[in-house]
Amino acid sequence: QVQLVESGGGLVQIGGSLRLSCADSKRTYNAFTMAWFRQAPGKEREFVACISWSGSNQAYSDSVRGRFTISKDYPKGTIYLQMDSLKPEDTATYYCAAVNHGGVSLQYRQTADQYDYWGQGTRVTVSS
Predict the structure, then answer these.
(1) Across the chain, how many H-helices and E-strands are there?
(2) C-alpha 64: how far from its chain's center?
(3) Which of 77, 88, 90, 114 is least enclosed, having the fewest CB within 10 Å?
(4) How many CB atoms lie within 10 A of CB 93?
(5) Stretch (H or E) spanning 92
(6) Distance (Å) of CA 9 to CA 17, 36, 56, 71, 107
(7) How far apart are CA 97 and CA 24, in angstroms?
(8) What is the full per-residue pLDDT of the chain (128 aa) written as tens digits?
């Protein structure tokens, strides 16, 4: 069974950087499409970025494109979200998610209902 564990959240100043990690200790997800979502208080969970099972393709939401980078370390069974030029509106709980790639394009993997497995979330706060 897939077990996702996020880490790396915290408090950062406006314009700063953080790197989030998501690991599956059983390394069962290497055939999975992986994604990051976030949810701010009182708001719906929103798509941030996703990466193909091979790590060769990525997709981003308009709000983070050019500032965030999703990547995958295949041997370690870990994905990352490098977040640069952080803004107060990036404040949220960030969730890692996974789904068997199933041959589905990343274009269609950008909503929460597409994913079967979720981590517990890690909190990111951007403050002045």
Answers:
(1) 0, 11
(2) 11
(3) 88
(4) 18
(5) strand 92-100
(6) 10, 13, 25, 17, 27
(7) 11
(8) 788 999 999 999 999 999 999 988 666 667 889 999 999 999 999 999 999 988 899 999 999 999 999 999 888 888 999 999 999 999 999 999 999 888 889 999 999 999 999 999 999 999 98
CA distance 78 to 71: 9
Q: Interior CA angle at 74 toward 38 and 21, to 5°?
A: 30
The token duo for 103 is: 């041959």
Q: Where are the alpha helices (DSSP H) in the chain?
A: none
Residue that is written with structure tokens 């941030």 in the block: 48
Q: Enumerate the β-bridge partners of residue 70.
A: 81
Residue 5, strand partner residues: 23
Please report how many Cα atoms fall inside a 13 Å half-sphere around the Cα of residue 20, on the Cβ side: 32
Rounded Cα distance, 26 and 53, in Å: 16
